[in-house]
Amino acid sequence: MSRTMHSCFVTLAILFLWRVEEVAEACSCSPAHPQQTFCSADVVIRAKVVGRQEIDVGNNIYRNPITQIKYDIKQIKMFKGPDMDIDAIYTASSSALCGVNLETNGEEYLITGRLEADGKVHVTLCQLIGTWDSLTETQKRNLVQRYEMGCDCKITHCTSIPCSISTPAECLWTDWVIEKTFVGTQAKHFACVKRNDDSCAWYRGAEPPKKDFLDIEDP
């Protein structure tokens, strides 16, 4: 629980979230490309949310009750995670503590989270949480193979020009300086993939990356 709270209270602006306007002022997260969120997550699934309940998890130092929200889910597909079905996810009860508010009407979501030692999956607003329909077709394809292919690559966030990479194993993420959004073209349509020579480059295409590919290919 303490690791979850610590990860939420970082100093930079919120990153790639479809419902960023719902994030409370007390919860902010470091900017990250969706591929980075995929690579850092223990669990990445597509699931329906079918139930919600508030559960007691104890008291704080002031003896005030601490609650969490448990969402019952029906797993549709696992892109990354343990060899088991996930039937519930847990989050803080307040958005100020990075708690996630999900609809319980059978809406399908892409959910990324952390697998705790007790086997529970915990999610926060700092992770990639969004409705399945809000994903681009390229993002959906990238979840199957391409994001994982680039987990050894480093995605460097460009905050102002000039900016550059320091090693061939980096991809420069320029959505903010070019489009003034973290949900720009590179976030929506590109994956940073490792080449055979261990260098990394942005890739956009309908098929798995070729042996040698350009930074940009037609979808």
TrEMBL record:
Family matches, as PROSITE patterns: NTR, TIMP
InterPro entries per UniProt: Netrin_domain, TIMP, TIMP-like_OB-fold, TIMP_C, TIMP_CS
Cysteine disulfide links: 27-98, 29-126, 39-151, 153-200, 158-163, 171-192
GO biological process: negative regulation of membrane protein ectodomain proteolysis; response to cytokine; response to hormone
Keyword Disulfide bond among UniProt keywords: yes
Subcellular location: Secreted
Main localization of the protein described in the UniProt heading: secreted
Keyword set, alphabetical order: Disulfide bond, Metal-binding, Metalloenzyme inhibitor, Metalloprotease inhibitor, Protease inhibitor, Secreted, Signal, Zinc
SMART domains with a match to the protein in the record: NTR (SM00206)
Residue sites binding Zn(2+) per the record: 27
Highest taxon above the source species: Eukaryota
A single MF term (Gene Ontology): metal ion binding
Annotated Gene Ontology cellular component terms: extracellular matrix; extracellular space
First and last residue of the signal peptide: 1-26
NTR domain location: 27-151
Family designation: Belongs to the protease inhibitor I35 (TIMP) family.
PANTHER family named among the record's database cross-references: METALLOPROTEASE INHIBITOR, METALLOPROTEINASE INHIBITOR 2
Name this polypeptide is given: Metalloproteinase inhibitor 2
Organism: Echeneis naucrates (Live sharksucker)
